[in-house]
Amino acid sequence: MTPVERAQMAMMLEVTAYPKPGNVDRCHDYKRTRLEHFLASAILARPALEKAAGGEGGLGEVLRESVRLTTVHGGGNTHFGAFILLIPLLRGGGIDGAIRAVESSTVDDALDFYRAFSLVKVRMLPGDPLDVSDPRALDTIREGGMTLLDVMAHSKEHDMVAREWVNGFALTRKAVGLLHGAGCGREGVVETFLRLLAAETDTFIVKEHGPAVAGEVRRRAGEILSGSGDLAAFDAECIARGINPGSTADIIIAAIFIALGEGWEWDCSRKE
Amino acid sequence: MTPVERAQMAMMLEVTAYPKPGNVDRCHDYKRTRLEHFLASAILARPALEKAAGGEGGLGEVLRESVRLTTVHGGGNTHFGAFILLIPLLRGGGIDGAIRAVESSTVDDALDFYRAFSLVKVRMLPGDPLDVSDPRALDTIREGGMTLLDVMAHSKEHDMVAREWVNGFALTRKAVGLLHGAGCGREGVVETFLRLLAAETDTFIVKEHGPAVAGEVRRRAGEILSGSGDLAAFDAECIARGINPGSTADIIIAAIFIALGEGWEWDCSRKE
Fold first, then answer.
1. pTM
2. How many Cα atoms occupy the beta-carbon half-sphere of B242 within 13 Å?
3. From chain A, which residues contact B within 8 Å (Cβ)?
């Protein structure tokens, strides 16, 4: 498998794994965003993933390209967070290279990243001087000479995906370890998803529902892992309440991408 | 969307559409062949699809390449029949060009096609002089100077996919018309699937279960379309009995590929 194919496989394997509390999966759609939208994005993102792997274009430019290619459908944003991780990982050929790649990011990368936001609706904190819906944000970036890494550092407190850029992809590393421990295929993905959800507050849930709900999700995921909670019921409740651990899913995609390159087996039927 | 992306989207949209009687779909796996295997094949087939579209290599060689790329997993044959249709359609840039492409097929294409069979288990009629498990079949092809089109003509009575090569892609054309009539998205794919299943005997079912069962499937599909049958119950029964209209699915993939190029809308949420 080429690195680009591994990235596409990671996007496919994450979204088809089930049951996953709250997210689109094999058995659940959102009203406007369906399984097919996620799978179409995995197919259609390829030219941007190729550029990332091939060293063509800046990180911000490639990120904008990936968002442009995958917002041609009516399903809205499917993989913005995943691309923020996959593109440096592809560019660097792994986590160590990705750390070097994000450290080399430029002000132009930051400007391209902000232009990518105009293609999708991404929830931001109110009053943020780098609010993407505020046209002055581009001036703030230019005047401050902020690189894309600086922008991610600015968001690290309230965005676990941005935080990966400044903490050496710590959660991605952690999820890779969980995945190797959890074993092959969709069952391994689901177990990793639950373990990460129990251990780390999903910042997407915090933005959408506040910290109390995010804490409740952590606790409930832990209960399922300890055998005292029911996964199917929790999944149904999350779907009904619109609770979507989207940032955890982004980390899982990055982790599957890395783990596939380290021999993690996506296909349990090969082991039978 | 490029033609290659349309082919990948067609493979994805066919397998995720549900409920489809008997086949792997979003809600059903076979024991060894799961949804992920079909989606992995759609991702991993790309280099062969690119060769088909780019005019690189003979039809048989590209077909063998497509099978080689998609049998790396443990799920077995997922798309052999679909590739038999998609590869000439990509090579010819549509149905008219595909007819010219298959008419230009050679003895080498036929030999490569037979070599592709060794990579998968495909059911043949017993006693067939072109039985793929018989090493003398290659001699029969060489001595008879049979092109790949001749091989398909030999199989046309008992294989509706091979028949497409010799009848001007008649069922593909029919399914394209049905798809345009049925409307957008997965509901359109399911309706087209049922209409084709009710109108045409699936030759894969004939090979696996005999003509009586194939006839029963046609009749039951017709009952569902007329409102007197229950789709979910029929689907469950087909899965339980191992009845798999696999050749109909191959035709549907080819039809989605063509229809996408003619403006058929895969994404109903764009119309809302």
1. 0.95
2. 8
3. 1, 5, 8-9, 12-13, 16, 26-27, 32-37, 39-40, 42-44, 46, 73-75, 185-186, 266-272
